[in-house]
Design goal:
Layout lengths: L6 H4 L10 E13 L5 E14 L3 E5 L6 H8 L7 E6 L2 E2 L5 H11 E5 L10 H11 L4 H14 L15 H13 L5 E5 L7 H16 L3 E5 L3 H4 L4 E6 L2 E7 L1 H8 L1
Parallel strand pairs: 3-8, 3-9, 6-7, 7-8
Antiparallel strand pairs: 1-2, 1-4, 4-5, 9-10
Helix pairs in contact: 4-5, 4-6, 5-6, 6-7
Length: 256
């Protein structure tokens, strides 16, 4: 039996500076090398990027452009070889692995193309998982998970298992799980990639609504139509940020 840690036991002091930005990257490089130290690939080459709180940004680029590497660094799943990264006011590079894991779990919500749900757990149990690792009491976990399940429109599916859900319902579950820690940023990597066009549209509507409520969204996509829903579209090529332009949402807002 696993002993549940209390929130105080899990807490680690991390200092943050209020900068008004969800993420700030300066001169970010990521170099992969062979075991002998020789260069394999420069995946990112001096990327500068600032994402204000509440912005909806889409990251685009061909295969090998560096967009997945950038997403991994933004999501604290990988560390840059060089450069500076501040997430929600926290200097990420100053953190050890324990503190980096805590920041990732509490300040970033992830939604992937594959839903990554635990088949043996119900919807509400899947949504509770991040809170379990944060050491929250069961009663609080359950209440917060139910709140996010209601938010994504799955109230009547809370006790169902993933195999009993449609693809769209599984992705809504994944979104609820990503939101349950009340993150500073929602990072969505091709969130509609495994869905038909109609179901994919319903998921994008949920993301639109989350952004309208004030959440910062970082979305990786290869689909121009999906990217156009954002406020800002950046494109990568060969590890370089080659364009940074307003998305369709920003252009609409500018005309209002």
């Amino acid at each position: 039996m696993i002993r549940e840690q209390t929130e105080n036991e899990c807490a680690v002091r991390i200092s943050a500076v209020n900068t008004g930005y969800a993420a700030e990257l300066v001169g970010i490089c990521r170099r992969y090398t062979h075991p002998d130290g020789s260069l394999m690939v420069d995946a990112l080459r001096g990327v500068d990027l600032s994402i204000p709180m509440g912005q909806y940004i889409a990251i685009m680029g061909a295969s090998g452009s560096g967009k997945s590497t950038l997403m991994n660094i933004l999501g604290c799943l990988d560390r840059p070889t060089a450069g500076e990264y501040r997430l929600d006011g926290i200097d990420v590079e100053s953190l050890d692995d324990e503190r980096l894991s805590q920041v990732r779990g509490r300040r970033i919500g992830f939604v992937f193309q594959a839903f990554n749900l635990i088949s043996e757990l119900t919807v509400i149990e899947n949504v509770e998982v991040p809170l379990f690792y944060q050491g929250l009491p069961r009663k609080e976990r359950r209440a917060r998970a139910q709140e996010k399940i209601d938010l994504v429109g799955l109230t009547d599916r809370a006790r169902h298992r993933p195999s009993e859900l449609s693809g769209g319902q599984q992705q809504r579950t994944a979104i609820a799980r990503a939101l349950v820690s009340n993150p500073a940023i929602l990072m969505a990597d091709e969130p509609t990639g495994n869905l038909d066009s109609s179901t994919g549209e319903s998921i994008l509507v949920v993301i639109d609504q989350l952004h309208a409520a004030g959440l910062t969204i970082v979305l990786v996509t290869h689909d121009d139509r999906v990217a156009e829903r954002s406020q800002r579209i950046i494109r990568l090529s060969d590890g370089l940020l080659i364009s940074d332009l307003p998305g369709g949402r920003a252009r609409v807002m500018a005309t209002q």
